[in-house]
Amino acid sequence: MGLVAGHALPSVAPLVPRLAAALRIPTRLTDPGAVAITFDDGPDPEGTAAVLSVLDRERVGATFFLVGEQVRRNPSLAAEIVAAGHAVQLHGDRHRNQLRLTPGQIRDDLQRGAEAIEEATGRATPFYRPPYGIFSAVGLRTVNRSPCEPLLWSRWGRDWRGRATGASVASDATRGLEGGDVILLHDADNYSDSECWRATASALPRIIEVVRHRGLRPIPVRGPADAKS
pTM score, two decimals? Predict the structure, then answer.
């Protein structure tokens, strides 16, 4: 039982900030005057395009945690994200729960995902966020021995659910918002409820408005110096 609990302990880090800090998993930015708006699960022809349109209109830079298998399906869209000035990071090659994977499977997933993104965009991915935000103990060790550093989040929009609305996503993502926060959103429905990205795209202008109203700057996350636990 103890071994099982130890294996799964890092999986609750997204819900327990003190545990994330103890495990040295960054969840925030080092810049207290900035906020990072991040998107998982893409690229997706519909969702990513909708999000990019809002970001372009608002002149805001964001961070996209891309999935290798989706990048191979949409390489030109991955390249478009970078051409628009946004940062790309790694969300794995396949969207699988680390608790069910061996160290070798995790290493292979990291390598394949990073290679797919770099081939499509010409950019390396210094940060990694696991699918579902779930690290296993062995997964976290594997990532820490890789070229990537982990990055989770401090706020989320709960936008993966079909019942989410633009209003609910904006409210959840900005409740208690402060400098240094990393906001988790999703620009695709590849691994969640169908068309949930519509609520995200609808919420995005309001989220940006709140960030700016609080005197904060939305920035893309590009390197390890940007993040802290």
Answer: 0.96
